[in-house]
Amino acid sequence: MVKKVNILNIFLYIVFFLILVRLYYLQIIKNDYYQELLSSLNEKEVLGNTMPRGKIYDCNGNILVDNTLVRTIYYKQTDNLTVQEEIELAYKVKDYLELDYSKLTKSYLKDFFLLENESIILERIPAEKYDSYKKRKISDIEYYQLKKSLITDTDLEIYDEEDKKAIYLYYLMNNGYSYDDKIIKTNATEEEFAFFSESNSKLSGFDTKYTYDRYYVYGDTLKNIFGSIGPITEENKSYYLEKGYSLNDTVGISNLEYMYDDYLKGEKEVYILKDGEKILVQDGKLGSDLYLTIDINIQRLVDEALTSELLTAKSAPNTKYLDRSYVTISNPNDGSILAISGKMIQNGKVSDYSIGTITDTMASGSVVKGASILVGYNEGKVKIGEFMVDECIKLKATPKKCSIYTMGYINDLEAIQKSSNVYQFKIALRVGGVNYRYDQPAYINDTAFDIYRSYFAKFGLGVKTGIDLPRESSGYKGELEDAGLLMNLAIGQYDTYTNLQLNQYIATLANGKNRYQMHLVKNIQKNGEIIKTFEPVILNDLSDIDEKYIQRVKLALQLVISSGTGYGYISPSKNASGKTGTSETFVDSDSDLKYETESISTSFVGYFPSDNPKYAISISTPNISYVNKYSSYIYPFNKNVIRKITDAIN
């Protein structure tokens, strides 16, 4: 018995010894390690203020978009306020702020209704759904969405306009993480800023500070192209959260600001949140700068020419429906855009609509004839120097189709120089496999439209240019196919194109070899060092078109400017080439969504110098005139604009 007790005592001594050794190891030897571990568990890394976005420059280093300090009102949640007290605070504050309450969505309203009236909605939940939730067959998120779906429009009628103001403000106060500063309003008025600065002790959580906003050095110039910045929207929330953004971040929401947001956005300060106090551990960093291909001097020339001519044209006859025009200038040797402008006139006021150069399309008329005749050459349907009779074309059961006047016996150069429709009609019928006879039926083959459109696409017509902006239109392709419509396609009276597509088309003809992707950004710089350069991108080449045919077309385009329909558009000293275009279009004259009034739209494409092209230019002007019985006058809008611009370019 004593022996057993001794053995037990020895065992206990050993156990206690091991415990002491372990305690010594943990408390003495590993003390620093566990202190750091404990400290880290009580700390949380949080992001602080965002540094200013990168600036935007033109190709010569002129600042186009800068940053400016703005008065900002923000809210920071405090632990001592209940949900009900926050709601009461929102109702108290709403009358001291002007906010865009139209941004309040039905989804936000339902969230608020559920916050105040959850018991009502719980009674509406089907028993089987509630049972599924309790058994974890549906998630918390799915259950919440179920509750929201049971809120009706009638339920929401309890909220009047004043309620909605408070609800939207409450949403702003709670959008994001609890430790974040919630931006309530930027660009606050002096009165608002002063009120919240002086009264922040009374309005728990509300305060003021200065933040950064965009400043446009040249006013509205290119503002459409730059795009805008703003808060993360509900639709894009998951996208930005996955990229590490905070819900209260300001991001690029359109165009260049959106496309290059990853570069432009500044990096935030990094803090450690410890015992409710934020400790700075990493400074923020400025965003990278965009250097564009735009030359602001040329851009301003274009803007001024469009603006002045729109104002002048509106006092001329037949310009009732004229309300906009677009111009693009590019380097034909690499696709870089030097100027891209759109102007809209309403009630005598001209505003920027440069984005219309890539979104708006129209039937561009005879400017496409350079590509059209190349179809005939390369497909063996017309020979260099071939003569044809310019006479009205008549197919069975259709009206006559003619040139603007009967030109008689003309060759291919004269057909482009004088802009003969009939010459192109006859080529199109040959491509379609038609043995044309006056007033007889004509049936085209299945490949004719595809042949034309495939050639047009080589030059950028009917396909996207690849510009580094969202929402680019590829134009409209007519769906019906017959001989008459094929002839229309050949003279630019069927498919529609954007102004930028016209520019890429003429630029491709100008260099005679490659279709370059159109682009606006030249390089991206960080602290003065280039971190990314955008090299020219060839989308396709013209190697399958015989060089002699391209040179023949270029000769014809020179004749257009020197003695043809484009005479006077560009000074002879520029040694330019180009092509005019006029198309029959329609306008919705009484806003009934029916395009019933026949109008005239015009376009022009050109490049100079002809022997070593440095500039490609395009203009599209919808509805410059309209058809009426009293006058056929067409104001020379395109000619005046192009002459002003090209005369000023050195």
Strand content: 15-25%
Architecture per CATH nomenclature, i.e. the level-2 architecture of the largest domain: 3-Layer(aba) Sandwich
Determine the fraction of residues in helical runs and give it as a percent range. 25-40%
Helical stretch tally: 23
Structural class: alpha+beta
Radius of gyration: 34 Å
Q: What is the CATH class name of the largest domain?
A: Alpha Beta
Could you name the CATH topology of the largest domain?
Beta-lactamase
Largest sheet, if any? 7 strands, mixed
The shape is: elongated
First-residue to last-residue Cα separation: 116 Å
CATH superfamily of the largest domain: DD-peptidase/beta-lactamase superfamily
The low-confidence parts are: none
Total discrete domains: 2
Indicate the mean pLDDT.
89
Number of strands: 24
Task: Describe the protein.
The chain has two domains: 54-292, Penicillin-binding protein, N-terminal non-catalytic domain, head sub-domain (Arc Repressor Mutant, subunit A); 296-648, 3-Layer(aba) Sandwich (Beta-lactamase). Helix 3 packs across helix 8, helix 16 (369-378) runs antiparallel to helix 22 and helix 18 packs across helix 20 (483-490). The protein has 650 residues and is an alpha+beta fold. A hairpin with a 6-residue loop joins strand 23 (597-608) and strand 24. The longest helix is centred in the first third of the chain and has 28 residues, at 2-29.
